[in-house]
Design brief:
With 371 residues, this protein is mostly helical. The protein contains 14 helices and 2 strands, in the order H-H-H-H-H-H-H-H-H-E-E-H-H-H-H-H. It has one domain: Glycosyltransferase (Alpha/alpha barrel), CATH 1.50.10.
Length: 371
């Protein structure tokens, strides 16, 4: 696996020039290493080992091929990515680009990311910051696109660009907060397909909104305490005590996707401080140790939650599950770099974006996907 320095992304509000400082650090580091090699000869063996394992492996190479193909699917004039659900697919493509370490003005596909984010901002402004007015995307799309904008905030090159994202985020998140179910009962605190508080909810839609709320907090956007408390209560009720797993609507049959979606939701909300909550997360997460990553009726969507859950659960689950999932995904990549359709929804830029996000879990670049 390629060794990459894990740098927490600072959300900058001014365009600060750091190149000179970085150069000084590099110079100091080089001097230190030279001194170490003279005083401690054995260090040379460690350095040789680091150089060996820092070479790109098959997964890194697959990600590079996937990114090249994905960016070939972008309309250079509008910034949207090709597919029947352009908002959804552009949101996923932007997340994939960021998950792989792309940054506007700094990396190979940074300009593609910038164009994709600007497309989403234009769509938001035109549609009252509701992104789900396409096909059956609805609140799924709202969650995916708003999450992409949250993670992009602070990445843009100028204060003006970042400010523009935040202004849109506040309105998109307000829509999500207002769409939360406030009706008493099992679904209180969750979300469903439409941006209307109708009293119904499901775990699949809800976890996307929960990811957004947590990512928004990283952007220093205030989320009402009531919203977070209701979401926490909803998540806990979606745990099926009989099956020892999170489920689509609590009483439904558990699937690998929903078992791990519940785990992800609990972890990002920090619901791990009581024995009861830790038990829910642990029991539902055990599915990662036995699931076949090649199976699933919504393959790429399921892979997303499996990979994310394995990452947030820690080293044991990453070591056990991620290599199996990586081997499965690499077999699905075409010579062009595209990841072909498996089962479920769409192929093309949709499946390729999800595949890249899953493979990039190893990097932990995005704050929302860090352990």
């Amino acid at each position: 696996m390629e060794i990459r320095m894990k740098l927490k992304r600072f959300r900058t509000f001014t365009n600060i020039e750091i190149n000179s400082f970085a150069k000084k650090l590099i110079l100091l580091n080089s001097l230190f290493l030279s001194f170490s090699l003279l005083v401690f000869p054995d260090v040379s063996k460690d350095m040789a080992h680091l150089k060996l394992i820092s070479k790109k492996d098959k997964v890194d190479q697959s990600i590079d091929k996937g990114l090249a193909w994905l960016c070939s699917q972008q309309d250079p004039s509008t910034g949207k990515f090709r597919g029947s659900l352009p908002n959804t697919i552009t949101g996923l493509a932007c997340i994939a680009l960021m998950a792989s370490g792309q940054q506007p003005g700094r990396t190979e596909y940074g300009e593609n990311l910038k164009k994709g984010i600007n497309f989403l901002l234009r769509v938001g402004k035109q549609n009252g910051w509701y992104f789900g007015k396409e096909g059956k995307g609805r609140m799924y799309t709202q969650g995916i696109v708003t999450l992409a904008l949250c993670e992009a905030y602070g990445m843009m090159a100028t204060h003006k660009e970042n400010k523009k994202i935040k202004e849109g985020l506040v309105l998109a998140i307000r829509l999500i907060v207002n769409a939360q179910s406030k009706h008493k009962g099992q679904h209180n605190g969750g979300w469903h397909y439409e941006p209307i508080n109708r009293g119904s909810a499901d775990l699949s839609v809800s976890v996307w909104q929960i990811l957004v709320l947590r990512s928004a907090q990283n952007c220093q956007i205030e989320i009402p305490k009531e919203t977070l408390d209701l979401a926490a209560g909803y998540l806990r009720r979606m745990y099926n005590n009989t099956r020892k797993s999170f489920a689509y609507k609590g009483g439904h049959k558990n699937t690998p996707a929903m078992a791990t979606a519940g785990v992800v939701g609990m972890k990002v909300l920090g619901l791990i401080h009581t024995p009861e909550d830790r038990e829910k997360v642990h029991k539902s997460g055990l599915i990662l140790l036995k699931v076949d990553p090649n199976r699933g009726s919504q393959f790429y969507y399921q892979s997303y939650y499996l990979a994310t859950a394995a990452n947030v659960l820690g080293k044991k689950y990453r070591k056990e599950f991620l290599p199996k999932m990586e081997r499965t995904l690499l077999k699905l990549q075409l010579p062009s770099g595209e990841f072909k359709k498996h089962s479920g929804f769409l192929g093309g830029a949709y499946s390729t974006s999800f595949a890249i996000i899953c493979l990039c879990v190893r990097y932990q670049y995005l704050p929302i996907y860090q352990e």
